[in-house]
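Support case: user asked for a sample of complex input and structure output to validate their parser. Sending the pair below.
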Amino acid sequence: MLDKEQFDVIGKRFDIKNIGKVTGEEIYSCDVNIPRQLYAVVLRSPYSHAEIKKIDYTEAEKMGAICIGPDDVPDTLYNERIVSIPDKTYRDRTVLPKDKVRHVGEAVAACAAETEEEAFAALKKIKVEWGKKWEPVVTLDDAMDSKAPAIYDHVYLGEKKVDVKNNLACERNISVGDVEEGFKEADIIVDETFNIKRVYHMQLETKSAVCKPEANGGITLWTTTQGIHNVRILLGHIFNISLSKINVKRITLGGSFGSSIQMNSITPICVALALKARRPVKLVTSREEDMYDHSSYPLKTRLKVGVKKDGTLTAAHCQVWVEIGGHNIQAYPYLGCVAGWFASLYKWKNIKYEGKAIYSNKGPSCARRGYGSPQINFPVENIMDILAEKLGVDPVHFRLQNYVGRGDEFWGQGPTIKSIIRSCGVEEMLVKGAELISWDKRGNPDEKSGLIRKGIGVARGFHTSGTGGPHPGEVIDYSGATVKINEDGSVDVITALMDHGCGTWDAGAKVVAEVLKVPFEKISIDNGVDTRTTVFDVNTHATRGVYCGCGAIKFVAEKVKEILLNYAATLFEDRPENLDLALNQELGQGVVYPKGLPENYKTIGEIAEHAHTTSWGTIAYTSTLRQKNCPPCFITYFTEVEVDTRTGEITVPRVVMLGDSGTIINPELWKGQILGAYALGLGVGKLESIPYDKVTGKLKCNGFITDFKIPTTIDMPNIDNIIVDHAHTYEPTGPFGAKGIGEAALSAVASSFGNAVYNAVGIRFHELPITPEIMLKALEEKEIGGKVRNAN
Amino acid sequence: MNYKVKKIPIEFSINGQKREALVNPNDLLINILRDDLYLTGTKYGCGIGECGACTVFLDNEPVLSCLTLAAAVDGKEITTIEGLAKGNELHPMQIAFLKNAAVQCGFCTPGMILTAIALLKENPSPTEEEIKDYMRGNLCRCTGYVQIIKAIKTCATEAKTN
Amino acid sequence: MQTNTKILAQKFEYLAPKTIDEALDLLDKYKDKNIKILAGGTDLLVKMKTINLKVDYLINIKNIPELNFVDTNQGLRIGAVTSLSHIIREEKVKMKYFALYEGIMSMAAPAIRNMGSMTGNLGNASPAADTVPPLIAYGAEVKLQSKRGERTVLVEDFITGVGKTIMKPNELITEIIIPEINKNIGSAFLKKSRVKADLSKINLAVYLEREGNICKDCKIVFGSVAIKVLRAEKTENLLKGQIVNSELINKAAEKASYEIKPIDDIRSTAEYRIAMSKEMLKDGFKLAWARAKD
């Protein structure tokens, strides 16, 4: 990492460009109001797997509502996530299901009226005639059973029709080397099964859309999305409208964590209503609808690993199963990524990976921060601890011996995207973290006694910064921007790149400020842009916001710098390479001056004004960029837990968090990403699950967060007991040496928590969350609690 | 019940401005604020009082507007997030949130800020424990709360020195 | 049945009486109709949104000044619409009625406590209510008024089942009366929940009267372990008149775990509740004992 002192802006903290968020003026999709808008609500299936025979809207329409059903929307079969290339995209859905519903809460029909109350009253009058009903299958085993009802007969992969047997949505098998040979070489073999359950994103803003039909047959749309261009492309395809007539506005998003990578299910419903009503339509989902709409991918993993006595890994056989709910959003790339996250954590030498995705009668699973990395990290980091224990070596040293790091080949985003790691702070973080947490003093579980047991666990993880590779692959990944210098020397950055609160826009502005030497306050990367005014950006996902998104912005800014210097050169009557560009703090402006004569400067403002008054033109550039790498950003957690053996309750009094992002563009927001991820991971570790009822197919909590609890202020350690630190690395291919952090930050949290619990009580949990009920029962079975209580 | 119910006339003050309205018995304060008055800073997060995103001040006390009938605010003073700043001058708590990176997606922020202001009014020098306890009904999914607590602590300390 | 928590999706008549008499008149007038009383709204509105609880007439009593008070002269007299926050701000509650203070502080979060009232809790009659065990433990009473007259009922007898009370349709709770307690009374409230701002998995209020090292009298009241808040009378009898020592407390804890009748539900398991009842009895009793002066 370069010394941040050599930057003017990068790595320095400024008051964030978020003022609207603290004054209530920031507009999110659900805040948009268009004159004459109608309010829409969606009729949701009460059944988990049922045939739709007929829908009668007469009563509802008599109340004045505009209604739509399967016959009022296009037949187009699509996948709402078009990040993968068409050939690798499974398609199984239409805007509204024509034949049958496949999960409770699936949209069946919708209506719009003058007020939300009227719309909802009309909605209740829509009569659905149901046909055959099937028993819900809500567990992996039930869904895979040969007697399970077929949720699909066939789907499409690209243009190919694919039969679906035993609810198998897709599978992926990857082999490297020969695992059987590898296991023969091993002195110790461990074979364990783990289960990570679904959790719900619980992004604070529920999914919404506001659609205004335009006079020319097109639409303007505000919606919860991580990528406006993909929404536009999909809608154009589904509704057969020219893209030049569809304008999707970039608008602030109230959190997402991956749930809006795909176009949300309500968006085309809103569009269909608006087109039918010929009036703007606003559709905001309720929280209970949102909980049925999406949740994270679960993962059952069986992991068998072989190791030699000297600590060298020899083979790893990884089998995974994931039930994906009633629609396949991105299960195929998920299986590929899970393979990558697993394969690139440690030097397994020989690998066999078998992954299966299974349909079930639940809301569709979709990516959640980490996209399989947290799910597979848990089995891997647990097994690493198990192996270390069997070998009698320190778990930190064992990891240092085997991690995939600088100079090694890694394929984090899946087997088709391979590259060599150029920057890596793994060793620094493991060593430093161990010291900070006092790793040496943690003791062994069997040495511990007392009512409260303390334990420390370590886990590490990573994520790719984007999905770039040497050649374009299965996944589309490019971004762009227009950067222009305004007539007063301020700068507009016009980009479709989204920010879900992670600080992406902030980073983009800083990058431009650093390149053009314009003060941060004079850079606008504000909303007011849309698909019409921006070049393509695939999405802010896959931890690509800084590395890819801001990488593209930097590329464009440098072109603008070239144009600026070329123009300035004519004013100075010199060659551009004889000029320098610098930020003049006193003037609060960027200045251009002849090398060696800084006092003979012209401000950027003067230069821009001159270009304007002489009608020379605007100093601006537009382009896109595809990154050809996706360098891993790393994370390491040392978590300390306290287990109360009387109550089974687990608290986290202390934690050391270390991240490797190369150059850190905004230190405070970078920290915020890690702290936020830690809370998410704690939720997975000890609190969250969204079970479905086997008989009714409904969510046991009915979609109400009364019974879906997420961590609150009280669940995090005290400020003084949290250390967040960073590795000192520099990624040569990243903007000013930067990589990402967002998803890396979540990958290893629950793993470090689970390993800490083992260190505290000597019990290894293979399933999460570890609730007090589950902990207490396990303690009793191990006779820990029992012993202590009788002695009381 | 099929007959038309009587609308209720109410008078209230919103961010210092006196207003009158004719509301349905089942109108909720959150929707009057967001849809009729276009004060969209107050957010819908769950509708059942569990997330705190809809927090507003009612007669200077934080309440949840998703569980408050519009009819029941007759004669009362309402303050929303939009009513905190004085012109361009931000409230110290708003500044503290910005300076301490306590804002990410921002959706929970209005509720957080209002609740935090109420906390400091009741308890000008809260311990970290007291801050955490008071704020436990405001959910955030982005920040992990740490920088929010830091912002509130900073605001309390600065208020003391001023 | 589809819900929509963004709105309150039913039509009802809204009435806001300004005096107790006005309220009683309305209750009498509409006693055969579907009336619900709005004393806070946090339970009622949630039920209307999530389980479509039907209401035809909603009577908002929050604007009746005579119902909004805390009188600390003799014991505690708390007006029906007094907010939970107001109650815990009373010095006497904080310094003497520990179980009540701790019970209210364990509920939700400040905003909900600003809105909610204890009568709302009582009328809602949830077995998980956090104010009910302390009220029963202190021997509190509710005063019920109607056009026909008034009566006082022990909180313990007030709730009969899940969502069921002995209130008649034309009656209104006007105040909650809690007896005075002297120095040798100790009390405590404990609760287990998934997160701190949550409904209880199990809660417990302990009230005891101490004489030297003898437990002269006590009340052990558990919530979320049966269809209504439960007084563990067998456990109480085990403790009454006995010398307090570890052996006695352990015996009582064991007894309590047999008296409660918990079930498995979405929040917790019967097994866990039974295990916790033992730990909580021990902790709660010891705490209340330490608070009582001999």
